[in-house]
Amino acid sequence: MSEKLIISGSRPLEGEVSISGAKNAVLKLMAAALLAQDVSKIHNVPELTDVEIMLDVLECLGAKCIYNKADKSVEIDATNLTSVVASDKFVSKMRASFVVLGSLVGRMKEARVALPGGCKIGERRVNFHIKGLEALGAKCKIEQGYVHAQAKELVGADICLDIPSVGATENIMLAAVLASGTTRIQNAAQEPEIVDLANFLKAMGAQIDGAGTNEITIYGVKQSELHGVEYTTISDRIEAGTYMSAIIASGGHGIIKNVFPNHLTIFTGKLLEMGAKIRLLEPNVMEVSSNMRLLPMNFITQPYPGFPTDLQALAMALLSTSNGISVVTESLYENRFMHVAELWKMGANIKQSKNHAIIKGVDYLVGTSVSAPDLRAGAALVVAAIMARGESEIHGLNHIDRGYEKFTDKLKGLGVCVSRVSDDSDLLKTCGGINDTQV
User: Fold this and answer.
1) What's the pLDDT tens digit per position in 25-37?
2) Are strands 64-68 and 110-114 parallel, antiparallel or unpaired?
3) 119 labelled catalytic
4) Which helix (H) or strand (E) holds 393?
5) Beta bridge partners of 18
6) HSE (CB half, 13 Å, CA atoms) of 356?
7) Rounded alpha-carbon distances, angstroms, from residue 303 to 17, 75, 240, 266, 308
8) Which of 138, 264, 311, 379 has the fewest CB atoms within 10 Å distance of its CB?
C-alpha cells in the first residue's frame, strides 16, 4: 500500500538541513563504473528508489553491487559483464538508466537498451543519443521498444548537438572514452552533473577536457588504461533549491548544509529578487530566510547555467502568493505544468497558455488533498502545503521518493508539521473508485 503526507501549514520554519548526494549525478557515475574491468566505490549515494533501480540495471548486466546505506556508499564490481541487454523491466521506470547505453557500446561494442521511462513531463527524444553514437561508428536501430547499437570499432568524431541535451552528452562521453582518436562534443550540456561525470571518468584514467563548457573533448584511451576508483559525488542542487523554497515560502529561517552555492546562482538570484534573504556562512553552508510577502518575478527555464526546469514548479508555488503578477515560460518540456491543476485546488490564480503561465498572487493558499503528478511537481506541492492555511494531503509519494532522501525526516528537522501515513485512497483505486493515470 502506498503512503501520503499530511502537512499542517502556515507556520514559519526554523532549523537546519543537510543536502544529500545528487541523484542526477550519482546515477550516471554508477553507469560509468561499467567501463572499467575493476571495482569502483562511490560515496555520498542517497537512499532513493532511483538508485535501487539503477542497481537492478547494473546487476542484470552482470555487475556485482553492494549498497551500504549506513555509510551512503555503493561498490560496483564490473570486472565481468555477462549481458548487454538492459531490460524494459527497469529502464522503463527511470530515464537516467538509459545512460548505460554509452557505457555498454564503449566497452562491449554492443548494447540493447530499452527505451527510457520516468516522469511524464514531456517528450524526451533519444535521436540525439543515437546520432552521437552513429557518428562514433556504431550502427543503431530501434526494434521492439529497444535501442540496439553495435560497433566493430568506435572512432572519435566531431559531434554537434542540436540542443545541449544532458543525456546525449553523457552517453557520447561514455562511449567516446574507449574510442580511438579524439571526440569533440559541441553545444554540449554544461550542468554540474556533467562535470562530476567527467571528473569521475578522469579519476578512472579517461582523458577529458572542457566539461562545464559548451565544448567537451574526449581523448580515447585503451581498456587497460581504465581502473576502478573511489569517488564522492557532489551534493544535490535541486534538493537544496527545494529546501530553500520551503523555508522562504513559510517566512522562516533555516541553515542549509553541504550545498554548492555556485550551482544555484540563477535560482538564488531570483529568490533575492523576490525579497528573500540568503547569506553564505561557510563555503558550503547557506543561511536562508524571509519575513515579507514575496515580490513577483518572471523567468524562462533554460539549460544550465540558466534557470533550472527542475526548480520551475517550486518557483511557481512561491509565486502563487506573491504580491503581483508573474510570468513563467517553460522552454524545455511541454508537459511540465501538470502541477498547475493541483495548485488551483489550493486557491492559486494561474492562467496557462501552452508553455506560458501567468500567476496572479493570492493572499494565501488553502490546504486540501492534492496528488503529485511527477517528482518535482510533488516537491512543489509539499512547499505549497507548507505555505497553506490548514491541513493538506499529498498523494503520489512514489514520485517524490525517486528524488528526495528521508524527505519527511528532513522536513521535520526544519519544523514542518508533517506525518507520513498509509494512503487509504488506494482501497478506492482497487475498487475502481479512482482512475490513477500515473501508475
Assistant:
1) 999 999 999 999 9
2) unpaired
3) yes
4) strand 391-395
5) 257
6) 5
7) 27, 32, 18, 11, 7
8) 264
Please enumerate in sequence order all residues whose Cβ is within 8 A of that of 437, keeping only pairs 6 or more positions apart, or say none: none
Q: Answer whether 388's CB lies under 8 Å from 10's CB.
A: yes
Three state DSSP letters for 191-226: CHHHHHHHHHHHHHCCEEECECECEEEEECCCHHHC
Over residues 296-333, the pLDDT tens digits come to 999 999 999 999 999 999 999 999 999 999 999 999 87
Q: Which amino acid is at 198?
A: A
- Nearest-Å Rg of the Cα atoms of the chain is 22
Nearby residues of 269 by Cβ (< 8 Å), 6 or more positions away: none
User: What CA–CA distance (Å, rounded) separates 84 from 57?
Assistant: 11
Distance, in Å, from the CA atom of 189 to the CA atom of 212, rounded to the nearest integer, reads 8
- Summarize pLDDT for 394-429 with one digit per residue, the tens: 999 999 999 999 999 999 999 999 999 998 764 444
Query: What's the half-sphere exposure (Cβ side, CA atoms, 13 Å) at 65?
Result: 23
Among candidate residues 60, 119, 160, 431, the one labeled active-site is 119
d(CA 402, CA 393): 19
